[in-house]
Amino acid sequence: MLKPAAIVGQVILYGAFAAFIGYFATSPTYHQIPDDVALIKLSISHLGARECRKRTPEELAKMPPNMRAPMDCPRERSDIQLEVDLDGKDVFRTVLHPTGLYKDGVSTVYKRFEVKAGSHQLTVRMDDNLVKPGFDYVKDEPITLAPRQVMVIDFNPDQGGLFFK
Amino acid sequence: MSFHAALRNGTKSIFLRVEEAFDAPFGGQDNPLRHLGAMGLYLLWIVVGSGLYLYTVLDTGIDAVYNSIGYLSHEQWYLGGVLRSLHRYASDGFMLVMMLHLVREWSYGRYYGFRLYSWMTGIPLIWLAYIAGIGGYWIVWDQLAQVSATATTELLDWLPIFSEPSARNFISPGAINDRFFTVLIFIHLGVPLLLILGLWAHVHRVAHLDYLPTRRVMLATAAALTLLALFRPALSNPPADLAIVPGKLAFDWFILFIHPLTDLTSPALVWTLLFALTALLFALPLLPHAKAQPVAVVDPANCTGCDRCHVDCPYAAISMAPHPDRPGYQLAVVDADLCASCGICAGSCPSSTPFRRRETLITGIDMPQLPVNALRQQLEQALAQLAGRTRIVVFSCARGARATPLGGADTAVIDLICTGMLPPAFVEYALRGGADGVLVTACRSGGCDFRLGERWTGERLLGEREPHLRHSVPGSRLQLWLGSASDSSTLAAALAEFRARIETLGVANDRLPSYLRRASHHA
């Protein structure tokens, strides 16, 4: 039979266990970013360009008839150069490399930037064929970010290349 | 002393102090700190049981999952809401108990030798528990789930395992679909099943395992968590919206602490920390530690194949095999990798009785470092030297309260590897050899370093377990005293009290007839 003091002790200790669990299961609250900050997520997955060469008639003639593809394209994809400027200041510069053992996969990037909410000028430049000089895709436009808003910079050739959403 | 040893000893002393303080209100058997493994299993069953109910009522779909869980908390609070809260709080309790169990076992040095297997199989379970816990939060698909899903995938993307960043799956509101939740629930069921399978492996080399704590502890824990569920029900945060970053969130620090840690540092640091800690846990057994003691040795000529040692071994280190020389008989076989060198088997062996007349007492299973024959010789010498009005023999545990300082003209102290190695017949042998009383000291209830020494000793002396102390031995002349190393100071008082009690018996009419081994007819 438990003594009254032992019962009281057990009630206190079980209560402390429950209180400890209950408190740290919800508290203290967590705030991932300050209230006046928005998030820009740069998330691009894209296949770099390939430098294809047109086969000459002599080359095609030497090939078996069923394999006479007019273009000779290597498996390797080009690196992708990417630049992000915010309000005229560069915030991100990178060269993305294609994935895969033969460097024939997509090049990807995922990056998040915390910026003050409000109006900004956002510029993104992307070059997916480093053999050719200059950027193939440029998106430069003013944006207005609400506090805690998430804005995504993505790329889709079917939507005209770089886009913000 | 190395830094590791100092840290371990310091942590151990903290655990010991708290555990022993908890003995006061709980007692050894009900002390949750002494049964953290069983507590963890019990909390896991609460998680599984409440989770099964949640699974049956959960609708999978981006909005449906949030609404169906919200329905439980708001409309069916008395059942679904309570079970949801129990699911969460028992999960948190499981994490807490699991980490305490890990630290305790480490501090007690239970990670090498015969415990190596349990230690190694326990480490992956921590990963599985956290994978299951974090995944469980995603199912609710509220803002906390959003934070966790985004943060987890961003963390995973640091590792070169995906060709495309997995965080792209949570990039915008249209990025996920209903099927995602079907997969998520499949994972949330699969990982805990793996965890349970891993737990089976973790404990299957431990005999007489407490799969659950005592009924009293289970009821009290369930009551505490249910009250918590009623007074502070687990509720969802606002629904997830990938177009915004959630504001202040009620946050589960037991399971999701890794996200703030990542935000505060970097994925590289967090992975380095996680992998380094895991590697360290795996490597701990390689660090210098106490030298292994000689393991139990079976003597086929004296082993009767009774299987008591097989039954009593706390670590399933003994199996029974056909006797090589005696057809139809069995023979105990010791697995040296599993043997804890506790001697509990020697205490359980019926051949360990000191009443056997042989000059050299060879028992069926024995400890090379303290053979039963040496124990008998030690006892006989001590009995021959005892003098005084009340002569007492103390059989003490080397890992429990220090009894050696109590030795004197009228008190003989015989240290055992573990009190569980004391064959009960030694008590009668001491009384018939001239002792007026026998004091047997063992560790506190639930506090035996070899798990079952104090329990088996108590049961054998009370006649509840074989080999039992003969009923003709007067209980007034035997005292079983339980205490840890920190109780050494009170042992002297216990001995004095026992001596005084024997002295009040007056003219002894309960004395056993004396016994002279050399004149007896025992085999």
Characterization of this structure:
The complex is a heterodimer of chains A (165) and B (523). Chain A has 165 residues and is an alpha+beta fold. In chain A, strands 6-1-9-10 form a 4-stranded mixed beta sheet, with no helix packed on it. In chain A, strands 5-4-7-8 form a 4-stranded antiparallel beta sheet, with no helix packed on it. The longest helix of chain A has 21 residues. The radius of gyration of chain A is 28 Å and the shape is elongated. Chain A starts with a helix and ends with a strand. Chain B has 2 domains: 284 residues, Cytochrome Bc1 Complex, Chain C (Up-down Bundle), CATH 1.20.810; 223 residues, no CATH class. Chain B has 16 helices and 8 strands. In chain B, the strands form 3 sheets. Chain B has a 4-stranded parallel beta sheet with strand order 6-5-7-8, sandwiched between helices. A two-stranded antiparallel ribbon of chain B has the order 1-4. Chain B has a two-stranded antiparallel ribbon with strand order 2-3. In chain B, helix 5 packs across helix 6. Chain B is elongated and about 95 Å long. The two termini of chain B are 50 Å apart. The chains are: A alpha+beta (165), B alpha/beta (523). At the A-B interface, helix 1, strand 1, strand 6 and strand 9 of A face helix 1, helix 4, helix 8 and helix 9 of B. Chain B: GO terms for molecular function: electron transfer activity; iron-sulfur cluster binding; metal ion binding; oxidoreductase activity.
